[in-house]
Amino acid sequence: MNNTFSMRRFAMLWRWAWSTYKKVLIGSVVGAAIVLFVFLEVSMLDIAGDRHEAGLVGKEISMYTNFILMFTLWGSVWGASLVWLMMGDRRQAMAFLLLPASPLEKFLFCHLVATLGLVLPVVCGALLADGLRLLVCLMAGPHVYVSMLEIAADKIALFFSSEYLLGFADEDGGWPCVACLVLLYLLVLSLFLLGGVFFRYKAWVVTPMLLLAVGFLYNASGISFFEDMLYTAKHSRTAATVIAACLLAVVIALYRLAYSLYCRYQLVGRKWICV
């Protein structure tokens, strides 16, 4: 029997989470759908009857799509600081700690729940609101049909095209340069995760504020370390490979440190930090 990681036990964690929190999840999706649907309909009413309605509808839907995509990107990072979400109070923490799963399985589960738990309800709510809006358009008769899902698919395809992300593969740095960009995202994600594990109280506020303060000091200092690093990676495949390897090592070290702190969790411990 594998005491470190078992897909069966890991799947049972998700089954437990669904049976325990399905009402909260469904309520979050429905709430996000209602809010976004109202905003969409109000926007459509403001431009109804305009002779440029077709272009204005596309512009409005595109604006909301950009918001959802940006929220998905930054929400997945910010959500990592909510790693203690399953430990809401002492009773919930006790129930979670008693689940038949290894520390690694619980750590990965909490990380995924924190990362997806903030983004998934909004994304699903946006899809539901978009479907309801299109249904209302069909019932109302001749109208301008612009799907948020179609616009999002086009924007995602454009981002991963040669004009943006994959365009770095055509530079001298090649695919290692693309790996550097992906690893930079994972670096920020791991920093939020580490902050979320280290701070037990209001980690979702303390962590971004601390990282924003560090970023402000970095900009104020005039240092251009990351800019120079990306420039070097863009123009040299060897340098890009070395930089990617270093970034990967840092990400792994941060995840390992976060996991070590997670394993030290005590039901009765310090209020602010988990050490």
Features:
275 residues, mainly alpha, 9 helices, 75% helix, 0% strand
Task: Give a brief outline of the structure.
It contains 9 helices and no strands. The longest helix is centred in the N-terminal third of the chain and has 41 residues. 25% of the residues are buried.
Account of the protein in words:
- Helices cover 75% and strands 0% of the residues.
- With 275 residues, the chain is an all-alpha fold.
- The longest helix is centred in the first third of the chain and has 41 residues, at 7-47.
- It is globular and about 60 Å long.
- The model has no long low-confidence stretch (mean pLDDT 82).
Put simply, the count of helices is 9
Question: How is the main sheet built?
Answer: none
Overall geometry comes to globular
Mean pLDDT: 82
Q: What integer value in Å does the Rg equal? A: 22 Å
Helix content estimate: over 70%
Q: Order of helices and strands, N to C?
A: HHHHHHHHH
Strand residues, percent: under 5%
Computed structural class: mainly alpha
Beta strands, count = 0
- Uncertain segments are none
- Termini separation comes to 31 Å
Write the layout of secondary structure elements.
Layout: H1 7-47, H2 53-78, H3 90-97, H4 103-140, H5 148-159, H6 175-198, H7 203-221, H8 225-235, H9 237-263
Helix pairs in contact: 1-2, 1-4, 2-4, 2-5, 6-7, 6-9, 8-9
